[in-house]
Amino acid sequence: MIKARIKAESSKANLISYDQTYKTFNWPDVEKEFSWHRTGKINIVHEAVDLRAMEPQKRGRKALIFEKNGQIEEFSYLDLKERSCQWANLLAQYGFETGDRFFIFLPPCPEIYLAILACARLGVLICPVFSTVNFDELAGRLNNAQPRGILTHPDLVEMIPVEAMGSVQYLFLTEGPLPGVFSNEVLVEGVVQHMPKEFTTIWLPADAPLYINYTSGSTGPPKGVVHTHGDMAGIFISGKYVLDLNEETVLWVDADPAWVTGLICGTFAPWLCGSTSLVQGDTFEAYNWYWTLEKHHVSVWYTTPRTIRRLMEAGENLPGRYDLSGLRHIASVGAPLVPDLFYWAKQHLGRSPHDTWWMTETGMICLANFPSMDIKPGSMGRPVPGIEAAILDDHGKPMPPMSLGDLALRVEWPGMMSGLWQDEDRYEDYFRFKGWFLTGDIAIKDDEGYYYHQGRNDDLLKAGGDKVIGPYEIEQVLCMHPAVAEAAVISKGTEPDKGVSFLKAFITINKGFTPSTRLNHEIKAFLKASLSSDIIVKEISILEKLPKTRSGKLLRRVLRAGELGLPGGRTLDMKD
Question: Measured between alpha carbons, how far is 86 from 541 in angstroms, rounded to an integer?
């Protein structure tokens, strides 16, 4: 683990004293922030959008800025309320009711966000899907969720499998002309704009399902994770304490809404905090990312290590051409924020990126480096107030600091998934140790309560004796070699005569270095000198790129499958 410590950058954050807040925090106090605490009437859209739209001083504040191809659309809180009510009226006209499922299968566009709010108003389960999802994965999701409707674009209609459309009564198209592929196509362009701008919000119990998000393509078949309207307390705390949102904030979450980060932190989190959410609908280009930060005066940016690395690869001279002075907080998610990315961003973007950790299953950010807290580069940070984390052994017992084990969270909290759609057995497996939610990640906690990600549970490696290690620390050492850009380490099995893992490393190399047998030997020698004598990496393979999910999370499973001659799946279709 990196022992460096970076002093906190902010003394004016929403969370000032972490230790004091953590000790005194309780969720019932957070519930008092919401009108339903007094009225008993629950719907997340009412709290996130409608209440501000009802206030003359706040209704005109920007809630959503959407940019694509140089065109910018802005929506106030009143606009979001009225436009989403029109969409809710449209869906109600076609008979959609509480409990129905609705797929949103679109490229980036404002309609995604209006439909999300409309579904929540009705109690219809939202299920955003990546517009780049492949044919088989879409079929699997359709067969599992059995949606009553799909909202899509004509360009994507041919990607929809006919054999999986049995439950779909209506296929809504945002643009015309209708493709004529399905008999149930409905054009909403020019229709939804004439629907009434008022809609009687459906009041729901706190455990009423809000959305289904399919996840874990990196660790097994996708699971339909179900979350509820009651998540709003956890979502609010994620926005307030971790992202440090307030009514003056312009938040940019550069994640697709089909990923839980984009769905939750790009919509409900900022709106529950009264902030402005920015959506950049263009594909990644380094200059455009910098220009977006400058043009929209972004104050909080929630991104991924993958994006930071792509900016780093685009050159260190580029960020100096843009005015990033409005940026007061950077947070990252999706993969460990390795030290080289941390220090590059700190130097060239003017702010230290704050790593965070959560899962689709947790529904809210659970571990974080807070703006007012010192950062230990390489760490995921400390538990968010209201979350109790621990490192458990194989028997479900908490382990002392500096022990490697299963990262677990004490149940329950507002945001914890309510179930897996049509998959009770897999859901129960998360809770096989009574009172704990098992994340499937392995980690270490230091003596100050900072957590360090060490890989997935099936990434554990055996060293000498009873020693068990995670691949992450070996990968960190590899990346200290000047030739190594990125690294992944896997076990190819256990050597029977020694009882230790047979380790293989996969690396990509930096510009200026050429793959060669000599370089391979140099890196092995560097590892041997830098690692404990009972940790030996026997093979190193140089690749053009490492397999990753959309968020940049390393897919060691794909590398292991390749070594065994097994299919590893399409990495671009894996979310996290």
Answer: 56
